[in-house]
Amino acid sequence: MDGWLEVHDSTEQTINRLLETLLTSGVVDGLLVPLRTPDGRNAVPTLVRDPALLERAAPLAPVLPVNGATVLGRITATGAPGRVGAVLRNCELRTAVELSKVQQVLLDDVLLIGMDCLGAYGVEDYARLVEEGLDAVTPALMAAREGGVEPLPGYAFRPACTMCERPIPGVGESYAPHIAIGLLGVPNDERLWVSLRDEELGEALGLEPAEEPAGRIEAVRALVAARTAERDRRFAAFHERVHDASSLLAEFATCILCQNCMRVCPICYCKECIFRTDVFDHPSARYWDWAARKGGVRLPSDTLLFHVTRMLHMAHACVGCGMCSDACPSGIPVADIFRTVGRAVQARFGYVPGRDPAEEMVIATFREDELRELGER
Amino acid sequence: MVGWSGGRVVNVVAASAAAAALAATTLTTRPPDHPTTRPPDHSTTRPPNHSTTQPPDHPTTIGLFLCTCHGALEGTLDFPALVATGKRMRGVAYVERLEAACEETGLAAIERAVAEGDLNRVVVAGCSPHLYADRFEALMARLNLPPRLLARANIREGAAWAHIADPAAATAVARGVLEMAVAGLRETPYHPFNPRPQETVARRVLVLGGGLAGMTAALTLADLGVECDLVEREPQLGGNLHDIHHTLEGLDTQTLLASLVERVRQAERVHVWTEAELVGWSGVRGNFAARIRVNDEVRSERYGALIVATGAEEATTTEYLYGQHPRVVTQRELERMIAGGRRQEAGGKMWASCFLPLDSCRSVVMIQCVGSRDETRPYCSRVCCAQAVKNALALKRLDPTIEVSILFRDVRTLGTQELYYRQARRAGVRFLRYEPPAKPVVEADGDRLRVTVHDTLYDETVTLEADLLALSTGIAPREDSNRALAAMVGVMLDEDGFFAEAHPKLRPTDLARPGIFLCGLAYGPRFVTESIAQARAAALRAALTVTRPGEPRRDVATVEADLCSFCGLCVAACPYGARVLDEEERVARVLDSLCQGCGVCVAVCPNGASRQPAFEPVQALALVDAALIE
Amino acid sequence: MTDFEPRIVAFLCNWCTYTASDLAGTSRIQYPPNVRIIRLMCSGQLDPIYVAKAVLEGADGVLIGGCHPGDCHYQSGNYKARRRVAIIHQVLEQLGFDPDRVWLRWISASEGQYFADTVTEMVAALKEKGPSPFRRQWSV
Ligand SMILES: Cc1cc2nc3c(=O)[nH]c(=O)nc-3n(C[C@H](O)[C@H](O)[C@H](O)COP(=O)(O)OP(=O)(O)OC[C@H]3O[C@@H](n4cnc5c(N)ncnc54)[C@H](O)[C@@H]3O)c2cc1C
Ligand code: SF4
Ligand code: SF4
Ligand code: SF4
Ligand code: SF4
Ligand code: SF4
């Protein structure tokens, strides 16, 4: 069911009131939603049970300190005692879908709440922006009415956001959450465009059924087109930079093997990465063997093996959330690399991460009639 | 509301997720004993995440035995050079050239060298590992070494013969093969020989109770390759399911029942005994001894595990004129009448006990929590509210003009079922709430009934005229027989008379006694779907109990529990259904008897939580390294 | 590049291609001495990290041998291996590494000659390509 939700006071307050209704009416027993930290310089996913806390809810704050799906896993995977309503950005929603396929998130008792993503800043940038007394939300909403999604002057969105071609929940190859809140191409200071999976909820929320306005459809199309172009530009730039072994080594020359990219990557869901187990706990003599064979060995060892293995393990499911790039202390464009590689792997199997929880993970299954060109002379 | 169901109690969630995981497993019908018999492995499982470097008191001492194959390889391979290179390899403590490693003299020479040189790993370089495997395995057993500490270096088919025309090349390849064999062995963790006493586990499970839960458990066991006896004391299978005609969600339970009974009767591994009874029980997990009376004859049988699925029954009451007035019935009787009414509509015969034609009913009143949640039965029967709503909706479907009122204490329809409750509201079912001690008052009014209730929702006293009064009497444990059974098998009952769970959060299907598992109504009020889920979870645990501790086999895959993230990829990938997810412990498990040792689960597991003791990732990577030595 | 001898790391399924390599030896069918064989129980046992390791450590080629489609000793391991190889190819290609250095071949137990031919063919192809760019590379 699609329709309008009347805005009272401000857009954010309207959304917060909707959340409050869900919580107080017992539709959900808890909410996972970003709350402003007491100092205001960050907005962090919080499991809220007391509706009074929703006063601090900042569903529109353009910052992404952690991937919300990872924390959603924490509060659901081993059995939630109640239903949770999870407010997620679209990349987080994709992540939740992927993680549900590997039992790291249990979607059974989750009410997914998505909204148009108007871009996000890095944590540092966001804090600076707040310190400077800037309001990032109002101008973003204002621009969105006309279909624009732009960063504040002097600021830039996270690189992953600039190339995110699926920012709108339920649109294109995005999974439709139970509640999708539309801000783009609609008068979001007067009313919000809301899509629901369940009719019942519409009554409860006081939705006024309507056809999707043409302006919104056009704004979404234009945003997706612009993002897709930027994505392809970045893919091409990567290939420009990296085309053989030496340029590949150059790409990772500044890697300090801190493994931050793996730790923050939601798709690297392993309890402990293989690179942190006994398998890579080499006895000293082994380094000497390598040095003898190759003339020398870079230490710590296995830098490229780490990245390539990570690609082999998870690129098929890379959702393009960009947490990896955000976390890299050396400024390596990890997300650009993984998205480029991931895209190729995904295309080979027609797999779209985050599209549908029922879609089977690429690596665990097979089809007899596929890939016939492989294995034959 | 697609994709999410409401808040269920935790232990039900756990069990149903295990069942879902189990259902996702591809279950094969391949017999557990595959023709490829392998000699026993005496290695112990190694703790996760420990370093593979040698403990100081167990230095790697590899014995390298180069076989000339009765001199046949000497024409191609430069043995003196190979001996010399072998001696230089790290970890190699001893090198010997043999005429025929596979013959008595050769085997004896190896045995002597290992004993004298205190060697703990053996490389036999010679023919293909496909030959004489049994002899070398037997040798390792005599040496008190686990078979995986033996490596076969194929320098005959793989080097001497493949490059017979170029002795220098052949020798180089042979050297490479030796490097790899030694490198792989060097990485194989050493474990002191620790012969495990051979446990003899009875690979058979007893399922007590042939209701929905018992039948589901039996079929799941059969799918997992485990033999079971299904013991039912009544002449027919099915239990309470006979009286449930559909569930709130519209599941057709009678079709389910018929198909279950048929599948149980046909399943080769399920042996059904009706009008049978457990009369004796002793022993421990893996090795229980049971006596079962069937037709005045007592059979004895050994079991590895027991599943208790003895169910419960509808409670009776003397309240509200039940048994005194013909128009006062229980919900179950009403359900039967509705089903009978349908049958009559369809031209069939009336249900035998359907003494009251439904079409004379214009007004139906239902009272909830009769006898439940009071002093005698303080627990909520859970299914009653759903059953009432279900029957109310069914009445409305038969004839929308029938007036239906439900007098409830609070509607406990759980989770998604709340939706049906709202649907009932919309269909015009009236809900009135009473609060004890002010219970509804029922009086006979000739052929009809008069029900007076104080509705606390509107704070008014309402009098309803009823043609029919249906009482939700709830579920009561089969207390006497439960008590006898509990005493016999040595488990506890809870204060309500149901079987007590071991630990409500961690192991919702285990009884306090190892090897005894529980499912269905025996455990407390459960919906049909919950009983199914629990039965599957119990069957999984029972199957693990009877398959795990058998003779350890070298090729069987294992799981490093500390590393396993419960992702289920290995479960999806295993072609034999030998992998299952254990929801309680959140790890993948291997059903040893089904595992064929293909290693697919190892390759699919990203971080090496899934392993094969004979081919661990460190070994594989060491082999790659060695393969690149120039 | 006449004196360049490529080094191939081969991962062979125990039941098919490894047996074929044995057969080649028993029949004295000669093939170039450039291959080092790692025996797997099943091609489906091939962990992609093994291939990544071989490639980055400087193997000039990687050969993966399994049973023909439909003939897997373990029902479907080869189909899973095929998917894995497709992923490996995509990843290597995107990173600017020639995916055609990683070969997958279905070679049954009786195809000793085909095994030898495959190695011969692969050695020739790799000689054409030259040494792996990761050969003796210390900074990977
Ligand atoms: C009154 C009532 C109403 C219900 N309404 C609903 C509903 O509306 N919706 C819903 O989803 N679920 C409902 N249920 C629950 C549902 O019936 C059960 O979840 C399901 O049938 C599982 O039952 P079971 O196999 O555990 O036990 P049972 O059906 O009780 O089966 C147990 C079997 O074990 C046998 N047995 C008992 N003791 C022994 C012994 N010592 N030795 C050998 N055999 C023995 C019994 O004869 C019986 O055949 C209701 C249950 C009751 C009692
Ligand atoms: S790189 Fe692989 S092993 Fe490491 S965390 Fe990611 S998926 Fe797991
Ligand atoms: S690789 Fe980077 S962009 Fe891709 S899912 Fe992981 S963190 Fe997100
Ligand atoms: S976060 Fe950056 S520096 Fe750290 S391992 Fe990843 S790429 Fe290397
Ligand atoms: S694939 Fe590995 S991590 Fe996943 S469930 Fe299996 S053993 Fe555990
Ligand atoms: S080795 Fe793994 S995948 Fe193969 S049968 Fe055993 S459990 Fe299944």
Tell me about this structure.
The complex is a heterotrimer of chains A (377), B (630) and C (140). Chain A has helices spanning 11-24, 68-76, 90-101, 123-131, 137-145, 159-162, 199-205, 214-241, 245-251, 260-264, 284-294, 303-314, 323-327, 334-349; strands at residues 2-6, 30-36, 43-48, 84-88, 110-115, 179-182, 191-196, 208-209. Chain A is α/β, with parallel strands linked by helices and 377 residues long. Chain A has an eight-stranded mixed sheet with strand order 3-2-4-5-6-7-1-8, sandwiched between helices. The relative contact order of chain A is 0.13. Chain B is built from 16 helices and 26 strands. Chain C has 140 residues and is α/β, with parallel strands linked by helices. Chain C is 39% helix and 16% strand. Chain C is built from four helices and four strands. In chain C, strands 2-1-3-4 form a four-stranded parallel sheet, with helices on both faces. The two termini of chain C are 24 Å apart. Chains in contact: A-B, A-C, B-C. The structure holds flavin-adenine dinucleotide and iron/sulfur cluster (5 copies).
Major sheet: arrangement of strands of chain B: 7-6-5-11-22
Please state the average pLDDT score of chain C. Answer: 95
Largest sheet of chain B: 5 strands, parallel
> Helix tally of chain B?
16
Alpha plus pi helix count of chain C: 4
> What's the rounded overall pLDDT mean of chain B?
82
Largest protein interface?
Answer: A-B, 46 and 44 residues
Shape of chain B: elongated
Q: What is the chain-wise order of helices and strands of chain C?
A: EHEHEHEH
CATH topology of chain C: Rossmann fold
Question: What's the architecture of the largest domain in chain B, going by CATH?
Answer: 3-Layer(bba) Sandwich
Distance from first to last alpha carbon of chain B: 64 Å
User: Which structural class matches the secondary elements of chain C?
Assistant: alpha/beta
Largest sheet of chain C: 4 strands, parallel
CATH class of chain C: Alpha Beta
Q: CATH architecture of chain C, please?
A: 3-Layer(aba) Sandwich
Overview features:
heterotrimer, B: 630 residues, alpha/beta, Rossmann fold, FAD/NAD(P)-binding domain, 4 domains, 5-stranded parallel beta sheet, 16 helices, 26 strands, 31% helix, elongated, disordered N terminus, C: 140 residues, 4 helices, globular, binds flavin-adenine dinucleotide, binds iron/sulfur cluster
